[in-house]
Write a structure and sequence with these properties.
This protein has 21 helices and 21 strands. It has about 625 residues and is of the alpha+beta class. The protein has a 6-stranded antiparallel barrel. A 5-stranded mixed sheet has the order 4-1-5-8-9. A two-stranded antiparallel sheet has the order 2-3. α5 runs parallel beside α9 and α8 crosses α11. The protein starts with 12 loop residues before the first strand and ends with a strand.
């Protein structure tokens, strides 16, 4: 072990690994002195031994972990350190569960994919593969090569035949010899390394890097190419599902492979060289996770043993690192988790990222964090809106605050007191009653779609009747049932009307409707349809709205307001909570009054009838303080 200055450009490798169980340790010698390291680091050191010596930087050895001041200083250097390293080594763990065969397969597939340019151009391959499966005549075109664009702008020719062979080698459409080892890949991608937030910068920043698993090794470039081949295949399967074409059992397993974390880790190095992201985008990309996503793509939330590292580990990648430091966000292990998270959220709000309030959700479990500060250490539930690839632009777009685009946030702190914020907002309405839904254990989705629809319909009878007729009432019920959001033909979220998709559910179980007046109105409504051509009852697709319910119902409850508006928000909503429109925010929020006149955030909300600025135009705007 020896000291070195990064300014002198030393030659060294930087190790990326998971600490593992702190209580399971082994002893190594450092400068002939015994030094205790975790079992996983010990295994990594044994696995990396070569005939010639290696100079390796290892955080557990090179940073005094007992000195918070030194840790904070060294963490600030981590970005430069990994960028200036001769290379990175990512230790995935020892050989187990056929991992040797999986790495061998990835090396073969990756080599074939590199020839096709997939280490650097995923989008071109996806377009060509989709053309192959949608246009049988595509390969009959006399052109034998296509030009693929690289990051540096150079365009290089790639054989169409090579791309076709690559597709058929993993799709199983012509032979079964080179199918993806899905079970082994699932086990590999579920290893702890992929789920740690620190390794994101550790694998992104070095110019070159290798993955090591037991005695097997694969370069980052080759791993990227192999994974991109899988991801392009995944997109062809997504196209099939959108066209309602059946997947084979192998295709279904490939489509549902838990690969999201691997996708983040393997694409970030390329993305980082094209465009750097601010901290708010990095938090969005690494902090979302719920049961629905787990079933679809695997874990998304990246973890850290020390909760403060959820912020500190991302600062080295953030393009706005200097701006954040001026706002009080920088590595400092003398601060508590609550102090770090509060300072971070205050900075994000001062940067006008009002949408981050959507990550705030009240809990039945007491928290030391202010209600306006998300707990980044736990997976944040899915928000109503998604974000585009820049992880900043929200879609589908709502305009609840109308033309009130002012995002004035006042942050104040007196001496050693808590950080306080006030926002420009308008208190519009109050929750009159919250609906009750029977849910599926674990996932939290509604047990039956008809129960969800009937409970929302029941709420319309609680408040004053604001609907012109029963048809208008049903339209409001259906919009609210899925927050007027669903998956479009391109599999991305958009504002949709599922009215016709919901009618079969509403018609089939009238006998279980919870109120007599509901039963009467439903029978009259559907009886009126019998005299017509009946198309309204057959032109919908119930499976679409059922899919929407799977996404929207976990953790949410319907409610009705004093003014008769239907809505969806967190299950923690209470009667008497207020609906607020916040300046610059696309969606309304549910707030809870405190005795002091301040407010706590309960959750974001969908409130039918005010999502496009209807409430903002006539509202009284003021500054309200959040605690």
């Amino acid at each position: 072990m020896f000291p070195a200055s990064l300014d002198s450009n030393p030659t060294f490798l930087a190790l990326s690994y998971v600490w593992g169980d702190e209580n399971n340790r082994r002893v190594i010698l450092v400068d002939k002195h015994p030094f205790r390291v975790t079992r996983n680091l010990f295994d990594a050191l044994m696995g990396l031994r070569e005939s010639e010596s290696l100079v390796v930087w290892i955080d557990a050895i090179c940073i005094n972990q007992m000195d918070d001041e030194e840790k904070a200083w060294q963490v600030r250097l981590m970005g430069d350190l990994y960028q200036k390293a001769s290379g990175g080594l990512a230790w995935l763990g020892g050989s187990a569960d056929d991992s040797d065969a999986v790495i061998d397969y990835l090396n073969i597939l990756g080599k074939q994919a590199e020839v096709c340019g997939l280490h650097d151009n995923l989008e071109g391959c996806m377009r060509i593969w989709q053309a192959i499966i949608t246009m049988p005549s595509y390969m009959d075109d006399p052109a034998r090569v296509v030009l693929m664009s690289w990051l540096d702008g150079e365009r290089l020719p790639v054989s169409k035949y090579a791309l076709e062979c690559l597709l058929h080698s993993i799709s199983g459409w012509k032979s079964q010899d080179r199918l993806l080892p899905i079970a082994g890949l699932n086990r590999l991608f579920r290893r702890a390394w992929w789920g740690r937030v620190w390794v994101l910068q550790e694998i992104t920043l070095p110019e070159h890097a290798d993955f090591v698993c037991g005695t097997k090794r694969i370069s980052r470039r080759r791993f990227q190419a192999a994974f991109n081949a899988y991801y392009a295949f995944w997109n062809t399967l997504a196209l099939k599902t959108q066209r309602q074409q059946a997947l084979t059992p192998y295709e279904a397993d490939a489509f549902l492979m838990a690969s999201h974390r691997a996708h983040v880790m393997l694409t970030m190095p390329r993305v980082y060289r094209i465009e750097r992201f601010p901290l708010v985008a990095l938090l969005r990309a690494t902090c979302v996770g719920n049961v629905h996503h787990l079933q679809q793509e695997g874990y998304q939330h990246l973890e850290s043993t020390n909760p403060r590292d959820k912020i500190f580990a991302l600062l080295g990648l953030a393009v706005d690192q200097e701006e954040l430091e001026a706002l009080g966000v920088f590595p400092d292990y003398r601060k508590s988790k609550e102090e770090v998270y509060t300072a971070t959220m205050a900075a994000l709000l001062q940067q006008n990222h009002i949408s981050m309030l959507s990550f705030c959700r009240a809990s039945e479990i007491p928290s030391a964090l202010p209600s306006w500060v998300p707990d980044w250490s736990v997976p944040n539930s899915e928000t109503l809106q998604d974000v585009k690839p820049d992880h900043l632009t929200l879609y589908p777009e709502f305009r609840a605050s109308g033309l009130e685009r002012q995002r004035q946030v006042i942050v104040s702190k007196k001496d050693q007191g808590p950080v306080r914020i006030s926002l420009r907002a308008s208190i519009y309405d109050e929750v009159l009653q919250v609906g009750y839904i029977t849910r599926v254990p674990v996932t939290g989705t509604c047990l039956l779609p008809v129960d969800w629809l009937y409970e929302i319909l029941r709420l319309t009878y609680v408040a004053g009747d604001i609907y012109a007729d029963f048809n208008e009432r049903l339209h409001a019920v259906v919009r609210t049932s899925h927050a007027a959001i669903g998956y479009g033909e391109d599999a991305s979220l958009e504002r949709v009307d599922r009215y016709f998709d919901a009618l079969p559910f509403l018609k089939c179980e009238i006998v279980v409707a919870p109120r007599q007046d509901m039963k009467r109105d439903l029978k009259r409504f559907f009886a009126s349809k019998r005299g017509g051509d009946g198309l309204e009852l057959t032109q919908g697709d119930p499976s679409r709205i059922q899919h929407d319910f799977m996404r929207i119902t976990p953790g949410r409850s319907p409610f009705v307001t004093m003014k008769g508006h239907l809505g969806l928000t967190s299950q923690c909503v209470h009667q008497g909570d207020v609906i607020a429109v916040v300046g610059g925010a696309q969606v309304p929020f549910i707030l809870r009054r405190c005795d002091s006149g301040q407010y706590k955030i309960v959750s974001e909300a969908y409130v039918d009838g005010i999502m496009d600025g209807e409430a903002a135009a006539s509202s009284k705007w003021e500054h309200i303080e959040l605690v």
